[in-house]
Every structure is written in C-alpha cells, then in structure tokens.
Amino acid sequence: MLASQHAAAGATFAQFQGVPTVSEYRSGFSNEYRAAKEFVGLMDRSWMGRVQLSGQDRFDFLNRMSTNDLIRAEFGTGLQTVLTTPEARIIDLLTVYAEAGFLLCVTSPQNRRKVLDEFRRKIFFRDRVKPIDVTDQTAQFLLLGPRAMEVLERLGGAGFVPLPDFHFREICVAGRKLLIARVPHIAGGGFDVIGEDKDAAFLWQVLLEAGAGSGLQPIGTYAYNILRIEASLPLYGYELSDAVNPLEAQLRQAISFSKGCYTGQEVIARLDTYQKLKQQLVGLRLSSPLVSVPPLPLYVNGIEVGQLTSVAQRPDTLDVIGLGYIRTKWNQPGSRVTIHAGEDEVAAIVADLPFETSGEQRSPTESGREENTRV
Predict the structure, then answer these.
(1) Sign of dihedral through CA atoms 17, 90, 251, 178?
(2) What is the signed CA dihedral for 305, 310, 314, 317, rounded to 10 degrees?
(3) 174, 164 in Cβ contact below 8 A?
(4) Does residue 233 share a domain with residue 113?
(5) Which of 70, 116, 69, 71 has its CA nearest to residue 91?
(6) pTM for the full model?
(7) Beta pairing partners, 347
(8) Is the pLDDT at 369 greater than 60, yes or no?
(9) pLDDT at 365 over 60
(10) For a tag on the chain, would you pick the N or C end, based on fewer CB atoms within 10 A?
(11) Which residue from 159, 226, 149 is spatially nearest to 180, judged by alpha carbons?
C-alpha cells in the first residue's frame, strides 16, 4: 500500500475483507462515490491477492479444480472461476488472466495463502505446474466510471480499443509494462491496472495525472462498497464463504456446464438440473438505516428465512440497499421481510439484482439520512 501517498491525500484507514485498506480520502466517500458514477474513480487494490501459475499443465490443473472452462483460454483473455470443495462449497472466486507462460489468478485478499495452499495440495506427482504468490511483488489499481477509457487513452494512445469483459492487453508506460484488464459491472465498468510493486508510486502518480482532465478522484472502500452492492457484486467474507455454493451466490457467469469433471461438478450439475437450491443471493431495499452491522437474520412472520450480508446507503438518493440470502420458498421480488438488528426491527423488500441505477422504487418507507456504509 502506498501509505505516504494516501496519507498526503488525507486518507483514513479501516479493515475491509480482512485487510487494512484506505476507507476514504479527505474529500469524503460521498464525493468519491459521485466521481466514480459521473467521471472516474481511482482505487488502490494492491491488497488483493495475486497467485501465478506457471508450467505446461497450468490450464488442465486449474480446469480440474474450478468451475469455468480454461482449456481454450488464449493470451489476452480472462475469466472468473470458482475454486470449490468436493461438496461444491466456495473456497474463493478467482479472476484469471492468461498471460504469456503463466496464469495470473487474482484472489480475495484474505484468501491468498488459502488459495496457494489449495494449489500446492492438489498438485499430483506428474503435474508440471508451479504456483507462486506474487502479491508482494505486484501492484493493482482500479479505474472505474464512465470516463475510465479516457484515462487509458492518454496512457496507451488514442488507439486503445475497448476490451471484452476480463480480457486484457499489455502496454508500456515509460518502460514499465502494465496489464490493463476490463472489469465489468461496477459504476458501469472499469479497468484493473496491474504492474510491478517497485513501480507502484510512479503508476499511481501517472494515473492521477492522466485522469486530471476527466474528473478523476481517488476512492476508498466506503465508496467502493456502495458501488459493488449496487452492482450486486458478492465478496468473500460477506456473501461468499464455504457455507454457500456458486449457484446460490448467483455466479453462473463463472461456471461452465459443458466442460468435463472438476471438484464439486457433480453437486453443481445436480443442483442445476433439479433446481434444488435451498437459498439464493438477493437484493434488499431497507425502510431505514441500521445501527447494527451484518450479518443479521431475516424473518417472515417470525420464521427465520435468511441473512442480510451487506448494507449501505446511497449518498445521492439516500436509499438503503443490501445483499443477502433468502430461502427459495420466500425468494419472490416484492416480498417483505424483517431484519432483526438487536432490539430493533427494520422492514425490507426483496429486490431483483442488479439494483437499477435510476428511476428505481423507494424502499418500504422513505429512507432516513444516516447509514453505516462502513461495513
């Protein structure tokens, strides 16, 4: 983390996904949220885990351990895939980039060592594959918002072509090689910028300067958390854990239903074929802010039917929105549930995902002004 650069910008720090991160800058998370929605935000995500898989068998190896089809991955392409247990429980959601000679696997920050250990444990005697944790040797930044492409065009030239989701290209800036990967969903989409850790301070400054004419503003995890809940992006430690499977977490985009066997494949295929999901990730519109921090139980007529996992209040509309799991029987958009938060009870409505970004319905009653976005 670029502690001195962040401190100079008035950063405050807090835990997010189990690691210390910049929570907000001097400008405040409301302004950071607005910048990402209307212009472009820049976030230091070097705290994400990055594990490199090299060796001739790297594609086959990861293919048999995770849910998506990596066999046809070519240089410049990327995808998401889920590492699963034999019972199809989630070990981690990975974003995988097929670079020349290796796969770069971006992990949840708290899971980098768990993923590395899982790789090492699953290497068979004849497997030609080598996993290495490169988190501390690399840096990762996120550009997000409608004007993110402008920043990249200033870095890589006007010929910078739009990329399919999770695909990437490599560019050189002042002799430093960067991986630029398309990241969908949040704030209309954006780009991960990955380089070497020794160049991190240089890259941060270059990105700030390139975005100066586009309204770029650094953002922290408070604003990011609101944006990712809007986009219904589940995170490990909140919506994702070894207590749920990828179908319950609505991660179908990270699953291939046509490839061969992988760890947990039979369970996932059976759940999909027979529609036997016990619960599913949903959106929730709350009637008022919460004082208590999730996870919190959801009730219908006194029966516990699920769990609220994340919550935030939008700075622009003041709507309070959340993500959570609800049992299939009660999973109907428009259904009313009650959140039990200590001695308080807050009404909520089950909503379709992703949340709309404009013209949306208000929550069960008009939302209050105060909310703990720091979840």
Answers:
(1) positive
(2) 0
(3) no
(4) yes
(5) 116
(6) 0.93
(7) 338
(8) no
(9) no
(10) N
(11) 149
Question: Which of 277, 293, 313 represents a domain boundary (last residue)?
Answer: 277
Output the six-digit token pair for 334.
Answer: 């428009």
Cα separation, 220 vs 234, in Å, equals 18
Q: Which two tokens stand for residue 54?
A: 């090299």
Crossing angle for the helix pair 112-121 and 58-65, nearest 10 degrees? 110
What the block records as the tokens of 223 is 């604003």
CATH code of residue 331? 2.40.30.110
Is there a single domain that holds both residue 235 and residue 350? no
d(CA 115, CA 105): 9
55, 94, 252, 271 from 61: Cα distances, Å: 10, 14, 21, 24
From its phi and psi, is residue 183 left (phi > 0), alpha (psi between -120 and 50) or beta? beta
Q: Which of 277, 309, 329 is the last residue of a domain?
A: 277
Structural domain range at position 311: 279-375
Q: Count the Cβ atoms, other than its own, within 10 Å of residue 156.
A: 18
Amino acid at 104: L
Contact 63, 70 (CB under 8 A): yes
Give pLDDT tens digits for 145-186: 999 999 999 987 656 677 899 999 999 999 999 999 999 888
* Cα Rg of the chain (Å, integer): 21
Going by C-alpha positions, the residue among 127, 122, 129 that lies closest to residue 101 is 129
**267 forms bridges with which residues in the sheet?**
none
Secondary structure class of 63 (helix, strand, coil): helix
What is the overall mean pLDDT for the chain? 92
Say what percent of the chain tops pLDDT 70: 93
CB-based contact 322:283 (threshold 8 Å): yes
